Amino acid sequence: MNGLWWRCLSLCIFIGTSIGAPASEPSSDDNYWAQRSRFLIEESQVSLGGRMHFEYGERAANNILMAAKEEEVDEGFVDPSSFLPARNFLTVVDEVRGSSTFQIIEKMPKGAALHIHDTALTSADFVFENITFRDDLYVCRPADGSFQFRFRRVADKKVTCASSEGWELLADLRANSSIKDEVDTRIRQAMTMIVPDPAKAYPNVNVAWIAFQNIFITIEPMLTYLPVYEDYYYQGLYELYDDNVLYLELRSTLPTLYDLDGNQYGPIEVARLYKETTERFVKNHPDFIGTRLIYAPLRNANDRQMDDYLTTFAALRKEFPDFVIGFDLVGQEEKGEPLARFVDKLRAVSPSIRLFLHAGETNWNGLSTDENLIDAILLNATRIGHGYALLKHPRVLELAVEREVAIEVNPISNQVLTLVGDMRNHPASFLFARDYPVVLSADDPGLWGARGLSYDFYEAFVGIMSRSADIRALKQLALNSIKYSAMPDEEKVRAYEIWTEKWAKFITDMTYEYSIVSRSKRSCEVDFVPT
């Protein structure tokens, strides 16, 4: 009886309170729109670059940039099929190059590239037009349509070739006019993931990764010829420099190199090649800060292989303490071992060693792939590679912000490898909206027709960020890349100085070029007299 009485009393109190409480007063139109305006301002202020003030000349430059961006976004709003970031990058590479927004971004000093892999650093055009035309390059053409390449003095019959023709000198094939064009077309196709219909060719992440890995299998025996590897890397540095990037942190498996005398070169020799080639490049381009190396072997390893990795890493650190900066594991997360498998071994590494860990490059939730994010943050990773599944682990995100663990976002890679179809749906939109510690990079630009960072900056700026995100967001990304790099503090100071000078020139040049174009247009309008 007492229980029934209390339930009745509670109901009466609830009803009386609900009926007796005055309704909240509707705000006047003026109050509503003022509140809405403040709301938008507050959102803008907490976004990437939102706390920055425009410096000298930046507001005028921003007007030029935003006119181009807003025209592109607004046209896409009317006709979504025309919006390039909503389409697969593999099908719109050439159209992106024609974008006015992209052309401005190309000229912008972008700071540092902090997530790029060794044998996908350099453009496929260079590989095809330069490397495949070098002397002593042999090719094996199996019946399945694939290619195998290797430099050698003569066709080595000891090396298996699953083709009735055996190893053929590529120059001889090209000398045959009846097959030259077909051979060149097939070689180009074998070097990138570019296809007419990516959705059909790569229906899911596993198929995309198989195609992706097959490219490495095809090109690496050609690229790992010692003289080629050095030239390939130097060209990769030049393409970054030409794209207004001033520093690189390169992830490398440190593949075994070879020469025509049968010599092979292991991790120490390969790291030395990187270091010496970087020094030569910096000498020729003194406004390029340099490169550092992250040793990043394959994650599909057993315990013994992991021990070997860490032994190699220790030797690299001893030989190149200022050049080799950290450790990572690379490869498809669904197919490789989770970080949890190697936690004890990684925890045993000296606390002074930095980990730059691929984690959460997946669409899954509650599996070992996305839970790699938990291990990455608990292992005190310096940066997290991709972090695509980060929003599914809010505690990891909280700790990343608290500890300033930057997330290396690679938009085009995520799209090509089928994690996201339309850049407007990329989870980095939330990271940008809240100004979380983020850097942009390109992952494997040579494998999808890109070069440098401009293409990923374009996709992020136009497709992932808000329409209202402006030049300050781009500026913040560039500054973040220096801040979250592994450069020592004194080197960061120099990088900031070089970048600041280049940024000021970029702003001045943009406004000057626009004023020239505007005056030219007005002159044409005045001089034109209808007949």
From TrEMBL:
One annotated GO molecular function is: metal ion binding
| EC number(s) reported in the record | 3.5.4.4
Q: Which domain of life is it from?
A: Eukaryota
- Report the residue ranges that make up the Adenosine deaminase domain in this protein: 209-494
Q: Does the keyword DNA-binding apply?
A: no
Q: Name one GO biological process term.
A: adenosine catabolic process
Which keywords fit this entry according to its UniProt record? Hydrolase, Metal-binding, Secreted, Signal
Q: Which Pfam families match?
A: A_deaminase (PF00962), A_deaminase_N (PF08451)
Localisation: Secreted
CDD domains, from UniProt?
ADGF (cd01321)
Of the GO CC terms on this record, one is:
extracellular space
**Does the keyword section mention Transmembrane?**
no
Which residue ranges does the record assign to the Adenosine/AMP deaminase N-terminal domain?
A: 25-105
Q: What is this protein called?
A: Adenosine deaminase
- According to its UniProt entry, this protein's organism is Neodiprion lecontei (Redheaded pine sawfly)
